[in-house]
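Database export, one record per block. Field names are fixed; values are copied verbatim from the stored entry.
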Amino acid sequence: YQIFRCRDGRSNCEDCRTTEISDIFSAHLTICQKPWECIYGWDAKSEKLCSRLHSEWFRIRRSFEESREEDDGLRLLPDLGEAFKPDTYFGYCKRPGRGGYLPIKI
């Protein structure tokens, strides 16, 4: 296909990076990368979508942690006060990059 054509053969396609998060039901994170790699600093066109997708992923992670028993030793609810980008990572990324992720305890 030529550069201006869609992968499915259509000649005109929307830029999915401009889609409202409320209109997304499923996402493959190829452009945004895996949330647990604590990526930050996407290109300008991807920034809004990727930060929102990652934020939603980590919001669900936080909700899962909150649902765990408090006394089982597995629950992890980081303090958001000094967390790295808390609106996106909810405390589960101490810093950007793979080494910054706080994994789920099992």
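Remark 1: The chain has two helices and no strands.
Remark 2: The helical segments are 47-67, 86-89.
End of record.
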